[in-house]
Amino acid sequence: MGSLKAYSHAPLLDGYHVNNYVETLEALPAIHGLNAIRLLTIEPGKQGEPLVGHLTRHFADDCPSYLALSYTWKKATFTQPITINGAPFLVTENVEKALDHLRYEDKPRTVWLDSICIDQRNVIEKNYQVRLMNKIYLRSEAVICWVGVPEEDEDELKPGEHTDIGAAFDLARAIEEAGSDAYPEVVARHPPVALFTLLKLTERSYFRRQWVIQEVCLSESVTLQVGEHQLSWSAIAAAADGIAKFGQDHRASLLFPGSNRIFDLFGIRAMNFCRERTDHGVFANDLIDLLRTCRGRELTDPRDMIYSLLGICGPKSQDVEIDYRKPVHALYREVTAATILRTRDLDFLRLSDHRSRDEGLPSWSPNWTHIWAGSWQIRSLRFKGYPPKERGGIVPGSDDVVFSEDLRRLTVKGAHRYTIAYVQDPSTIPEDPDSSITDADCYVQLARVLIQTEYLVTYHPRPGQSRQERRVEFVESLRAAFTGGQDVRFTPEQWTTWYDAIVTRTTDALPTEEREIWSLYNAKLLKWLHEAQYFLTDAGILGVAERVTGVRVGDPIVSFKGATEDSLFAIRKFSDRGDYVLLNGIFMAFTEEEERAHVQLVDDLNDGKVKTAKYVLV
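The structure corresponding to this sequence follows.
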């Protein structure tokens, strides 16, 4: 056993080795394997005894009852030997533990899991099997989400800390029964270790894995399992919703991007969002909506960011061909181009990532393996995912949008609006705060950055505008950009009072009740200011860009035909041929008069009433 090498042979079928997928398919009558799967039957045994099983092949539409396993590959090191069809077969430690806990002591149990039932080395087989994933999970009797064993978190615990999975699952069930709005009262009735364990559990890598989105969505019966403990999916989703609403501390509801814990809670809620929109076989999800929700999740193969979602997409999104021989960049470009041509909505370009070009993608194509760096952009984005109605825009079949044959250049029509004239000095941008920062430290850093940014803005007022009027405009624009239309617990007047207290360093003089409210937001504002960079245009208009895009003096700001009034884009000349790099969407603090003029110009642009220039984006 010790001399075995990982994946030394393909999975066994009926007692013989299968080295070529086509040979396997020819053994299946008529269908040539396009609708065939393998199932693993685990022989009965006690926990800890050697695992023994056998693989059989079946028509996907005519299978015996089986359990579908959802799990994470983790480090994907195949070191644990089990016996399949009389021969040794290597699996990961996580799979070995899952099968050990899932098998019965007194009878066989049939399961499907990708690392054993699919020959992962065979690209052709993998292409076919991934197309069947939705059917495999949809037709299983149940899906078990294997999250690991209870003691998995022990190495991360501090002295005196301990976990109790049973107590955590009891708490989750109680939250589900009472409703997530009753979260504070329910938590108060349970021992502290229950919530502590539940939060530790949400940090596990399972909830960040991309493939589990589809696996959780497709079956009516989904159960979370940790060792011997089981919990319904609806209960963990209700608990995550309650934690996100009320939090375990005063920052938990902020979805603080620097906190893995909050990101993981968002991951569970994102998974549940997709599940609620998938009616167990009736797929209304749009691929781009799903990618927006799930981008940045963990996976081994970047192509799976798209392939893993096709099983829960509507018909329009299922024409993407699953082919693991296709280069990642080619796949991402094809999906982007197809989406733009289908939706005829260039608001889609706001989904692109500033790092795309550095990694071989055009600046106009999103890299779905990245999350956005700037939360303001997420809030302001209102991409619809379908063709705009009752207005002009991109004319199908015209030269309004043209892709080069190799899908590396995108030519669009647009109008130059402004030029960036002043940019916030990067040295004034605060450090990235972590979740342990105190209120006092927040206020010190906020005072520094706000005073410096206010000076830049008020030193360059609009024509005829006083510096005090400019200051009022800045404070209001900061509130609008920071909140992004979200529900908040303060009024514009309270915001101004808070701002004044910060820059005059008199926050201690605020009433206790107000200080408690602002403690919910000061770290969030500091995080937002870390991600943002202020600029002024040649017309004196105040704007905000993602800091990581690195806008510069001289960068043009344009409106594209086919985009709505919500989207203005910063671009940068890339070559003497006239190519441009898309930096991304920006937030502009228009006055009411400027807003009306902007909306009218965008309408005229989309109706063909404005002279346009062609911009070649690379």
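Residues 439-459 form the longest helix (21 residues).
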